[in-house]
Inverse folding.
């Protein structure tokens, strides 16, 4: 029985779609999880074996994989589409003789300090400084670059990332992060300009750019939350060429030879600056978004890359596609969600997804995890697709019992 071992998954989004893609490719799906709720759930029919283990302990994972082999499974890949476990999956894949992805590059991308060091003295890095104590000497230089972004080097989904405009805010956020047991904090210049998400696969050092997506950013109390995504087609030739060159350079500087990664870049004064790079496809509805816009199932192609199977990254079509996400500014318990059917019936709408369940706690958008629904729509043009998605998402209402 040829099987793919997955370490951790979300209930929905790209990581969940990867499980389904593996089953569609004809492999048995084994999920290692530390969630008793998932093990007891009947929501994962694509999973052949759900194994409860301590996925924070590589020895525990290793032992469970050995047990699976004794049960007769032929493990053909070990992989994770979750930030925290990509590196663990890649080194275990190497140990069990099914390695493909570049483990050291994954580790560098996961650690924003290492990532910034990879780009040091290149045009792609913003001004930055690593702070590891609260002395004035450490922070003095940073004060002259306000506004600044202060972040935990291991943050994901904009968690523990803050925009600061004053010296007091700078000291406060550095103090807060260092007191949260972080050994160091990154302080970097705030970049102004349009921001783009670039989804890629890297195969034998060749960088395949799968999709270029413009991001719409909402600033909430210093947090940058992505609330909109617009798939780009027919970009100006020189603009796209410069973007592709930057993406190739940045990925090569991180040492990625095989693997999946997405980059967020800003176009600042006619040059590209890396906001961050992550060794996986974007989460949320990104796989679905790309599938509707280009006809490419990116998580499936990522699995094929891991399995050393031929890739098919040629777009089957080019649709003007836009996604809009719903955020909420209240804190409290979700009573109900209304407007889903109205959103589905809106012009151009392809997909509507509601994340929270009744009774779940709702919070304001201090990280990307506090986005509660999305709509994907197409249109006759980029502007038309965006308008269709915005009209639809505004029909969805969260009814919250305020705390």
């Amino acid at each position: 029985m040829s099987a793919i071992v997955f370490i951790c998954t979300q209930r929905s989004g790209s990581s969940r779609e990867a499980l389904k893609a593996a089953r569609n490719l004809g492999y048995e799906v084994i999920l290692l999880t530390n969630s008793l709720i998932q093990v007891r759930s009947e929501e994962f029919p694509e999973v052949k074996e759900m194994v409860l283990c301590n996925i924070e302990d590589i020895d525990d994972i290793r032992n469970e994989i050995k047990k699976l082999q004794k049960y007769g499974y032929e493990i053909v890949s070990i992989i994770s589409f979750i930030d925290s476990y990509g590196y663990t999956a890649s080194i275990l894949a190497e140990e069990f003789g099914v390695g493909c992805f570049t483990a050291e590059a994954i580790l560098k991308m996961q650690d924003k300090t290492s990532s910034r060091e990879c780009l040091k003295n290149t045009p792609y890095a913003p001004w930055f400084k690593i702070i590891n104590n609260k002395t004035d000497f450490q922070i003095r230089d940073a004060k002259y670059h306000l506004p600044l972004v202060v972040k935990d080097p291991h943050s994901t989904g904009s968690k523990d990332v803050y925009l600061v405009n004053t010296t007091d805010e700078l000291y406060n956020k550095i103090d807060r992060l260092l007191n949260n047991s972080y050994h160091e904090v990154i302080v970097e210049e705030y970049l102004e300009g349009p921001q783009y998400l670039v989804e890629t696969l890297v195969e034998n050092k060749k960088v395949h750019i799968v999709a270029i997506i413009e991001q719409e950013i909402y600033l909430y109390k210093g947090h940058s939350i992505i609330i909109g995504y617009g798939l780009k087609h027919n970009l100006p030739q020189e603009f796209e060429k410069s973007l592709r060159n930057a993406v190739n350079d940045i990925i090569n500087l991180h040492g990625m030879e095989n693997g999946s990664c997405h980059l967020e870049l800003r176009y600042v004064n006619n040059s590209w600056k890396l906001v961050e790079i992550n060794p996986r496809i974007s989460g949320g509805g990104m796989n679905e978004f790309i599938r509707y816009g280009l006809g490419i199932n990116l998580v499936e192609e990522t699995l094929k890359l891991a399995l050393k199977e031929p890739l098919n990254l040629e777009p089957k079509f080019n649709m003007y596609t836009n996604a809009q996400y719903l955020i909420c500014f209240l804190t409290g318990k979700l009573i109900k969600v209304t407007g889903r059917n109205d959103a589905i019936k809106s012009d151009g709408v392809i997909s509507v997804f509601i994340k929270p369940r009744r009774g779940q706690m709702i919070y304001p958008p201090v990280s990307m995890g506090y986005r509660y629904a999305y709509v994907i729509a197409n249109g006759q043009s980029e502007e038309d697709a965006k308008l269709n998605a915005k009209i639809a998402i505004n029909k969805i209402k969260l009814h919250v019992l305020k705390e």
The first strand starts at residue 2 and ends at 7.
